[in-house]
């Protein structure tokens, strides 16, 4: 794996700077805090190659079945996604957790972008795998993840951004302007 710092992240962190989330009712107690540094010791940034050891798949397991993913499998998938482009996974890290790993991943969400011919060769965004560690919920971290992903899809010029969610979470996504679509989502599942 390349060892220089710039190649160890999935995408350029500069894309997350200067995002303004005030229209979603997100504000901070201290004016030094920002969407990507919302609390002392908490950072929101692109997924990095060393996030497996910081518990990335452990937090994903609070959302769905992760299956057998070891360091080698994580690294192979990370590199493949990075090479493909159009994957924007972000993570929330608690840098103050004393676990010998330099920090703990406590939340995540991913923007995936599809390239289309339709709508004048448009881009379509999809929000995937949004989850906050159960011990950190209720601190507006979920809102920050969704707000940052949504604004990223806007700034990357997606013509629309969609997601699938459980009925219980509809109200959460409505905060950001997502609306229920009359079209039905269908799937053919080949395995769990
Ligand atoms: C959904 C989830 C990401 C929210 O994260 P969180 O950090 O606890 O959320 P926040 O603290 O940012 O809460 C934001 C607001 O949304 C509200 N909210 C949180 N979860 C909600 C839900 N399921 N439905 C409706 N509103 C919700 C909160 O009350 C809060 O409202 P407020 O701003 O008026 O106080 C988190 O509960 C989670 O990880 N759940 C399990 C995984 C999951 O279901 N992910 C979504 C997949 S579709």
Summarize the helices and strands and which ones pair or pack.
Elements: E1 42-46, H1 56-60, H2 71-84, E2 87-94, E3 104-115, H3 118-121, E4 123-132, H4 141-155, E5 158-162, H5 170-174
Structure commentary:
The longest helix is centred in the C-terminal third of the chain and has 15 residues, at 141-155. 27% of the residues are buried. The chain contains five helices and five strands, in the order E-H-H-E-E-H-E-H-E-H. The protein is α+β, with helices and mostly antiparallel strands. It has a five-stranded mixed β-sheet, with helices on both faces. The chain has helices at 56-60, 71-84, 118-121, 141-155, 170-174; strands at residues 42-46, 87-94, 104-115, 123-132, 158-162. Bound molecules: coenzyme A. The site of coenzyme A has 17 residues, from strand 4, helix 4 and helix 5.
Key features?
192 residues, alpha+beta, Aminopeptidase, five-stranded mixed β-sheet, 5 helices, disordered N terminus, binds coenzyme A
Helix and strand composition category? alpha+beta
Report the average pLDDT across residues: 94
Question: CATH superfamily, please?
Answer: Gcn5-related N-acetyltransferase (GNAT)
**Helix-strand string:** EHHEEHEHEH
Low-pLDDT sequence parts: 1-7
Radius of gyration: 17 Å
Terminus-to-terminus distance:
31 Å
Strand order of the largest sheet: 1-2-3-4-5
Shape: globular
Largest sheet, described in full? 5 strands, mixed
Condensed summary:
With 192 residues, the chain is α+β, with helices and mostly antiparallel strands.
């Amino acid at each position: 794996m390349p060892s220089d710092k710039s190649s160890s992240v999935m995408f350029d962190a500069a894309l997350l700077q200067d995002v303004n989330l005030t229209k979603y009712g997100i504000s901070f107690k201290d004016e030094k805090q920002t969407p990507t540094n919302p609390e002392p010791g908490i950072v929101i940034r692109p997924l990095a190659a060393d996030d497996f050891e910081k518990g990335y798949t452990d937090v994903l397991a609070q959302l769905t079945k992760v299956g057998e993913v070891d360091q080698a499998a994580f690294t192979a998938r990370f590199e493949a996604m990075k090479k493909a482009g159009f994957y924007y996974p972000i993570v929330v890290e608690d840098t103050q957790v004393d676990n010998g790993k330099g920090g703990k991943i406590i939340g995540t969400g991913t923007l995936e972008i599809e390239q289309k011919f339709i709508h004048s060769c448009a881009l379509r965004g999809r929000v995937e795998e949004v989850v906050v560690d159960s011990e950190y919920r209720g601190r507006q971290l979920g809102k920050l993840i969704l707000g940052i992903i949504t604004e990223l899809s806007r700034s990357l010029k997606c013509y629309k951004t969609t997601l699938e969610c459980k009925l219980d979470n509809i109200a959460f996504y409505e905060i950001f302007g997502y609306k229920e679509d009359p079209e039905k989502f269908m799937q053919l599942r080949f395995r769990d």
